[in-house]
């Protein structure tokens, strides 16, 4: 039985459910309700199921309604048994009287209403967005705390440090309450800023402005050291770390294989390859990838347009990345040298693959027969023996082949018709296949720290 279809609350296998972190789940505040009513905090990265069946959703709604009503009743009862009139309150002679204060507040509200746009939805207040929020400590299993004050006191007494605020919707953590509360508002506020080019919507205008650069060639953030420009300050900040001395650069190590990466994002993408997580799916051919950048690069394969031409041999390519790789072939530069046999290569990925000849490492394992291979491309061809896939078709006799080598031999021996045009097409086909098969690996290898 698949754990992905088990209800988090009743444990039953169900086909009708709501994911706690889907749009409907966030709207219904299922995460807040489970933590508040049942003392079960659930995060977006939780290893346990994050779905709730419709029956439990209804019960949870009823429980939370009772919780809210009981909370209001407590305030009401407190006002009856401890009325405010019995408390001794000293009046400030300099403070305005209640009538004057009400008049001033009405004037301010009327001015704001005049400036407010009619079609702009009102934002929920921070106190409303965090009402009944399940405050939890990220350093220990102390359970759900009742209030923000209790959380601050817990961190002071138990950990001797300021509190850490964790979002139950996405798992992000903050050291400053102001940043945390503004982040929580993003989950509550409707996305009202829309891109007039692609239609995507955003919570903040600043994010929309940053997104708009995707549709242009503008790169307004240049590096002061090398002059390379970027579309965002974040990309510039990541790039700037490359100019730091090697000993001062941040290094992120994989716990499984020990490889070291320059950025945390590159390490996370690498980890997905270990876990075989490929969340980015091509809607044309069904192939999946570990990163969005890999998918975008792959999509160029399905385009017949070759808008990137080599200025030396005029050969056309579908993507700028393919053109860049080809351009190196017109030079004698081979900057990547093997430390064992001193052989040089034009690309870092080729050197990485070459070193496996010396180490004997075969990292690519067939999930059907468990045979291991040194290169990913060889594994792809090998798996065609199990699947029966034969992507190479002879245009003369319609015979199919599993790899380009056998296809070429067939053309020469049986038809003697491997013309320059067909050979060029074959090379292009191999380039496209190699680009597709090695896209994920090269995206990650480009972030590997050379030690």
UniProtKB/TrEMBL annotation:
Where is this chain's protein located in or outside the cell? Nucleus
Q: Which organism is it from?
A: Fopius arisanus
Q: Name one GO biological process term.
A: regulation of cytokine production
List positions binding Zn(2+).
Answer: 7, 10, 53, 56
Write down what this protein is called: Zinc finger protein OZF
**Cellular component GO terms, alphabetical:** chromatin; nucleoplasm
Task: Tell whether Transmembrane helix is among the UniProt keywords.
Answer: no
| Domain C2H2-type as annotated: residue spans | 165-192, 193-220, 221-243, 252-279, 280-307, 308-335, 336-363, 364-391, 392-420
Please report which protein family the annotation says this sequence is part of.
Answer: Belongs to the krueppel C2H2-type zinc-finger protein family.
List, alphabetically, the PANTHER family matched: C2H2-TYPE DOMAIN-CONTAINING PROTEIN, ZINC FINGER AND BTB DOMAIN-CONTAINING
* Top-rank lineage group of the source organism: Eukaryota
Q: Which UniProt keywords apply?
A: DNA-binding, Isopeptide bond, Metal-binding, Nucleus, Repeat, Transcription, Transcription regulation, Ubl conjugation, Zinc, Zinc-finger
Q: Listed GO molecular functions?
A: chromatin binding; DNA-binding transcription repressor activity, RNA polymerase II-specific; RNA polymerase II cis-regulatory region sequence-specific DNA binding; zinc ion binding
